[in-house]
Amino acid sequence: QVQLVESGGGLVQAGGSLRLSCVASGRTFSDYVMGWFRQAPGKEREFVSAVSRSRGGTHYAESVKGRFTISRDNAKNTVYLQMDSLKPEDTAVYYCAGDRSGRAFIPTTTRAYEYWGQGTQVTVSS
């Protein structure tokens, strides 16, 4: 089992940048596909990005492709989400998630991820 703790959220103007971090407890971080999701008020939680266990394969939602970059450091048990060119519509609570099912592909649905952090608020002002 793993516990996930996000940090790095905050208030930023449109066009600005933020970097989110998610630190995982436990010794098997490299066994997890790690993802980022977000949930805006009144909306369902949606996939943002994910990174594979060891080879570094990544996947992005179309809405963030070219602006966000996901990466992981298995030695530090940490996954990052670099968010550039932020837009007001990026405002949401961002959640880190972990999938240890061993799937051969990167999942994009919330139900595929067993472990979740508490979330960090990102607010982008216009």
Task: Please give a structural write-up.
It is a single chain. With 126 residues, the protein is an all-beta fold. It has no helices and 11 strands. Strands 2, 4, 5, 6, 9, 10 and 11 form a 7-stranded mixed β-sheet that branches. Strands 1-3-8-7 form a 4-stranded antiparallel β-sheet, with no helix packed on it. The radius of gyration is 13 Å and the shape is globular. The model has no long low-confidence stretch (mean pLDDT 95).
Helical coverage, percent range: under 10%
Rough shape? globular
The low-pLDDT segments are none
Structural class: mainly beta
Helical segment count: 0
Q: In what range is the share of β-strand residues?
A: over 45%
How are helices and strands ordered from N to C?
Answer: EEEEEEEEEEE
Reported for the largest beta sheet, the result is: 7 strands, mixed
* Total count of strands: 11
Radius of gyration: 13 Å
Separation, N- and C-terminal Cα atoms: 40 Å
